[in-house]
């Protein structure tokens, strides 16, 4: 798994440290060799808060949903996803399933999601 450098300002320092050595998408603690940030180990794959506000340090042009981020969302039943990259999941799960190589948008406590192709 490869992650992209999103920025080099202070806003991204924790993300940039924890992405080093992260080779699998997970939320179950640091992997062997995954970097630490100020002595704090990662809790899994790092994400960073972003926004579509061009005046914010967290601005990312691919963010089309105002602001925020989510990790490991659970819903009571298999999520229904829409969007240009939506597909039928390969198996049934109580969790949302993202699609690698696409823009995945999940909203906390909602059973739906959006999966779009990159522009």
From TrEMBL:
Domain of life per record: Eukaryota
Official protein name in the record: Uncharacterized protein
